[in-house]
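Exercise: predict the fold of this chain.
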Amino acid sequence: MKFTLPRVLAGVLMLLAGSICRADLPMLILNNTNESPFTTTNSQGFLDAVAGEAFRRAGVKLRLVKLPAERGLINANAGTEDGDLTRIAGLEAHYPNLIRVPEKLIEYEFLAFSKNPTLATSLDVLRARPVGIIRGWKIYEKMLAGAPAVVSSDDSAQMFRQLQLDRIDVALYERWLGLSLLRKQDIQGIYPLEPAIAKRDMYIYLHKRHAALVPKIAEALRAIKAEGLYAKLYKEKVLSLAVTASK
């Protein structure tokens, strides 16, 4: 799909203009398990920009908090926080107080990382090895249910530390999050394994008390994509990692 320059510029101008009026908007607090390049401590990540703009267009301000993945889901379902930023489809069946915003926020590439660059990524191979996951990442918990040597960590830094110390053979994470972590911490000798184990669309979930906002945020996300702003930000903030990784 091609985007004209005026449409992209219009989206950028709306994003900048939003910072002027954002202070007057009511605030929603969502749990966020992402790291760079999707979200950053100074709110300069890809999803900081996209989700923040979508919420602004829906008439609310977004604030992200960091909780362990499992605790974040429990809190969002209980209404302690207002929702969760990025989760796979279908969680509403297990967390009935959460409503999924039906427009995709991002696609995750679920990827294995290992010191052995030739290790096969088939599920049978991975299940037979000591493997690390982040507690609360439901896709991996389901894939590895019953596997004999699964080590659960609270966050990515802890999981990759286990890999560095040879306590696990494989760390299961997301492609861009993993590449960013390796670069940020200057970790050598750990490699992304191809192909990806799975690709899944990821969605925003809101507590049911915010049901009226769900269609507004979905429509805002569709508009951001149609304007070309989504693709522009993704190229700048995410795909730039592919260039770095290839050097």
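Check your answer against the key: The beta strands are 27-31, 61-65, 83-88, 98-100, 106-114, 131-134, 150-153, 170-174, 191-207.
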